[in-house]
Amino acid sequence: MEPRLVREMLERVRTGELAVEEALDALRGLPFRDLGVATVDHHRALRQGVPEVIFGEGKTPEQIALIAGEISGAGQNVLVTRVDAAKGAAVSALLPAFRYVPLARTGSIEVAPPPKRAAGAVAVVTAGTSDLSVAEEAIETLRAVGLEAKRLYDVGVAGLHRFLHRVEELRKASAVIVVAGMEGALPSVVGGLVAAPVIAVPTSVGYGTALGGFTPLFAMLTSCASGVAVVNIDSGFGAAMVAHRMLPKE
Fold it and tell me: How many CB atoms lie within 10 A of CB 185?
């Protein structure tokens, strides 16, 4: 249950609009709900400020629909990550409210618009267009937690003038998510030029010795720029959640 829903319930109890016993009934199912194939954590929004997110890979459309229906039925927004096109279409057929974004491989159900955060926009930067899927996963996750995103795409170090043209925009961001494959140099460049938190995302984009993303991962972990946070390979979701934890909730 989201904090706003708990506040509304308590306010209704305080004013006498809702009986104490009715509120107790609603709260009894708050910690979790066992669906057989999954145990849905309804308490996560209270603990972390965002409801449980469904990892779609490895789940059937029916399982995703069951879990998403349970979460949305409790009045919470739903985000599902790593959903391919076929699975997205199948879930949409089961849940008409399901909004599928093919490039991001995410789906969502919005019961209510996420409360907008006071923090400024988070810049999402990619080295190349091959990194867009990971970047768009970050964008959709930021949207789900109420953070505004600004796209700055295809500004990698192979044409550094493209990046330098956007530096002033970057300096206005509340945080910067930098998505890069190949040798993974871009987060170091960004980290040396901006004061905001920088979150680096290595991608599995690259030729043989890129090793499926390990080369940019190692480069980002050993960045010359101090204080650059690094998430797992291809984890746009993880980067957005780091920004969510770093930035003010109100």
Answer: 19
